[in-house]
Amino acid sequence: MGELPGIVITGASGRMGQMLIRSVVASDKARLVGAVVRAGHDWAGRDLGALMGVGHGVVVTDDALEAFAKAQAVIDFTTPEATLEFAELAAQARATHVIGTTGFTDAQLEALKPAAFHAVQVRAGNMSLGVNLLTQLTKKVAQALDEDWDIEVIEAHHNRKVDAPSGTALMLGEAAAEGRGITLADHKESGRDGITGAREKGAIGFSAIRGGDIVGEHDVLFAGMGERIVLRHIATDRGIFARGAVKAALWGQDKEPGQYDMMDVLGL
Predict the structure, then answer these.
(1) Exactly one of 157, 187, 218, 247 is catalytic; which is it?
(2) Is 157 a catalytic residue?
(3) What is the pTM of this model?
């Protein structure tokens, strides 16, 4: 048997980065070969084992290119700006780039595309099996119901999350729009405040809650006259996202360059 695929984790010092490191170390199907932090971070140059108690022998670096050169996959939950840089470097290394970063603008998403001509990109607003099943259900229900049913996506996260709506909420909104045969960009409604007037028919609304240590909760509400349908997913363990990301990194090893999502990984 050949050597197990080597994985590099970016944003290694963050909560998600540390969870990803532990998931790779715990896997019997992959190796942790690198941990990347931003330039000047005090973890740079230190042994990961001394910092976290796992990953002994892996020296944390702020040189992403050097780390990616010895990897078969990169798992990246950072910022849109950092992810764009990492996408180019992953393409140079021909490494599968698993992107869990959220908060991209349309222009930034467009800028990710060139790297996918040279390497596999797996990007998803949420890496969990449950959420991706919820996405499929949302699309199916939206297909079945007409504009007399209002659609609202309600999401809740911890008080340190910096973007809203969440990437998962937008993914659910896109699924609802696809089910209705419309574009989310033309029907998205969020941030209501003050005298907003009546709800626009056919709109897909978003509400964001931030508080405490909420890992992630998402409801898709279909509200009709006299009845409501609520589809819900509640995450209680951040590890579900890390395990899904590792699964995506392994899935991408024998795939042709291109852009994929977790629906592809899970065969949904």
Answers:
(1) 157
(2) yes
(3) 0.83
